[in-house]
Design brief:
Largest sheet: 7 strands, mixed
Number of strands: 25
CATH superfamily of the domain at 4-278: ATPase, nucleotide binding domain
Structural class: alpha+beta
Distance between the termini: 80 Å
Shape: globular
Radius of gyration: 24 Å
CATH architecture of the domain at 4-278: 2-Layer Sandwich
CATH class of the domain at 4-278: Alpha Beta
CATH topology of the domain at 4-278: Nucleotidyltransferase, domain 5
Length: 582
């Protein structure tokens, strides 16, 4: 393929939209060399608790629990700031850039008007929570997801087994039904219910094209169709035409050009007008080519705030609790499987902020370490099982294999002697037990995992990587690139620009070499097998209906919140002069 013009190098840009920031990467087309990057932190980050006062007309607007929103203009600002910064860092001539591609967290949904304007930017909607982006970790649509699952199972809908028997509250239909039922006026004003992965491409090229990845995994698009109008009407009569009026649109295959950079987007980015803009993609799925993991049985775990597990297979299998299986969902010609964990890095971060006393933070600072590095060092000195704890990694619900975001975190075995490093290690292990559960589900369903490859920010924690190798019993390798999703997007940009014939060819030339390799230690494998059996017993006890306490607690929490005026305190604060009881 022609990867140069008159002997001059050509470049592509990959832009990775994460939960808290967007990262742009300049990559050389010829060999995938990473030349420069730029990062832009979203000014509004993740919106929980209340809409920020600076985006509404009426000051801060309270939000119920389990809501997670974002402000879409933050995504445009990534193009305005991170892309020019990456080009400057690379020291290249922008005129040598031939394509750009993006990837996004999913399922992240944007309600828009017919021309792509986000609903929160329409007059009169700035103070309406349902007018904003619903981030992937917005879990307030669980009641709607429950109804979708119950009705689909009752009717024997053929698409349900493709998703392991359960549709998630994180996905398009549950979130769309919540919007309809809680703010019908906003629903009526919305012309398109758009994956953020497709919205940002629309902003770049002026063309709205749905990508095959999110349509299949998050939009219940299987065998050329969505759920029927009859099914949707049975959920809610006003939901009958959801697909035909809000969702259905042209679907582009991965690696194709959705369009070409507009003059406006060229002004934002400093890139040449008219270069190829690739069809959108998901941050996890786009990473597989970056890791050169495009063959059957190569499981890629993209580990960050959450973890997404993606793998190709030659045959269609039904795997309980997976997030979906899609024809060509990762690369053409293979079935793409997805599973995931809703909370991983988020859990570790939550614990360091809320469960670690100040003296630990002080000690970490004095040794020149971050709190995660400090706790990891302490935890690494422990024998397996020495802390006496087992945790369930459900602090952000369970994505796979239970697909239930009403579930919550548990730590069993704490005593007055339990130290922060004990709990921290138990949480690291819990996320590895969760991944082992997913690997076992694939294996038991006839989709064997042959290789385990890790990408994402958490691969830097060597203790965590060894724990995953020991608990899964699989040799684990890390991707050599620290920018896996952005590199994967750049690979797609090269294909969209016509520089390679397909994703496989581009991955072979541009994909990252492996990083570190972790081999399971036999005595560790044996020790963890005993603990995994305890994890599995707790997993099934709380997650499969034997004890429904987590759902009951969620119901009590919602009922209490609904009965309390916004900002009200149910009980008077205890005076500071009152001491502990004798």
């Amino acid at each position: 393929m022609d990867v140069t013009v008159d002997g001059s190098e050509q470049y592509v840009i990959g832009v990775d939209y994460g939960t808290l920031s967007g990262r742009a990467l300049v990559v050389r087309v010829r060999d995938g060399k990473e030349l420069g990057s730029g990062v832009f932190d979203y000014p509004h980050a993740v919106v929980t608790g209340a809409l920020p006062a600076n985006v509404t007309a009426d000051g801060a607007v309270p939000l119920p629990g389990e809501w997670a929103l974002q402000v879409p203009n933050d995504y445009r600002d990534v193009l305005r700031h991170a892309v020019p910064a990456a080009v400057a860092a690379a020291g290249i001539d922008p005129a040598a850039v031939v394509g750009i591609a993006t990837d996004f967290t999913a399922c992240t949904m944007v309600p828009t008007t017919a021309d792509g304007t986000p609903l929160n930017e329409v007059a009169g909607f700035a103070n309406r929570p349902h007018a904003y982006v619903k981030l992937w970790r917005h879990h307030a649509a669980q009641p709607q997801a429950d109804r979708i699952n119950e009705l689909a199972a009752e009717r024997g809908e053929s698409w349900l087994p493709r998703y392991g028997g359960l549709i998630s509250s994180e996905w398009e239909f549950a979130k769309g039904l919540q919007l309809l039922e809680e703010d019908p006026e906003a629903y009526a004003a919305m012309d398109h219910w758009v994956e953020a992965a497709d919205w940002i491409v629309w902003q770049l090229c002026g063309q709205y094209v749905r990508n095959a990845c999110t349509a299949g995994y998050k939009g219940i698009y299987q065998d050329g169709s969505y759920p029927s109008e009859d099914f949707l009407a049975a959920l809610n009569p006003e939901f009958k035409d959801f697909v035909s009026t809000k969702v259905e649109h042209t679907i582009g295959r991965l690696g194709e050009a959705a369009g070409y950079l507009t003059a406006e987007a060229a002004g934002w980015t400093g890139l040449p007008e008219g270069i190829a803009v690739a069809v959108g993609n998901v941050d996890a799925h786009v990473t597989a080519p970056a890791a050169r993991a495009v063959e059957p049985g190569q499981l890629v775990a993209i580990m960050g705030t959450s973890t997404c597990h993606v793998m190709n297979g030659t045959e269609l299998r039904e795997v309980p609790g997976m997030c979906g299986v899609v024809d060509g969902g990762i690369v053409d010609g293979l079935w793409g499987y997805e599973a995931g964990q809703s909370g991983v890095g988020d859990i570790f971060g939550w614990f360091t902020k809320n469960g670690v006393p100040p003296e630990y933070h002080q000690a970490a600072a004095e040794t020149g370490l971050g709190i995660h590095e400090y706790l990891t060092g302490l935890a690494s000195r422990q024998a397996i099982g020495g802390h006496g704890l087992i945790a369930l990694d459900w602090h952000s619900g369970n994505r796979s294999v239970l697909v239930d975001h009403e579930l919550s975190g548990v730590v069993v075995g704490q005593t007055l002697a339990t130290k922060p490093e004990d709990t921290y290690r138990a949480l690291l292990e819990a996320t590895a037990f969760g991944t082992r559960t997913i690997v076992d589900a694939f294996r038991d369903s006839g989709v064997p995992v042959k290789e385990f490859i890790v990408a994402g920010g958490l691969l830097k924690n060597k203790l965590l990587m060894q724990i995953y190798a020991d608990i899964t019993g699989l040799q684990l390798s890390t991707i050599g690139s620290s920018q896996g999703p952005a590199l994967g997007s750049a690979i797609h940009a090269a294909v969209a620009a016509g520089k390679y014939a397909d994703i496989r060819g581009a991955a072979a030339a541009m994909g990252s070499e492996p990083g570190d390799v972790y081999t399971p230690i036999p005595e560790n494998v044996a020790a963890y097998e005993e603990l995994f059996q305890e994890y599995r017993a707790l997993h099934d006890y709380f997650g499969r209906g034997a004890n429904d306490v987590m759902h009951r607690l969620k119901a009590i929490q919602r009922r209490t919140a609904a009965a309390s005026p916004a900002g009200a305190t149910a009980q008077p604060a205890i005076p500071a002069t009152v001491g502990a009881p004798a």
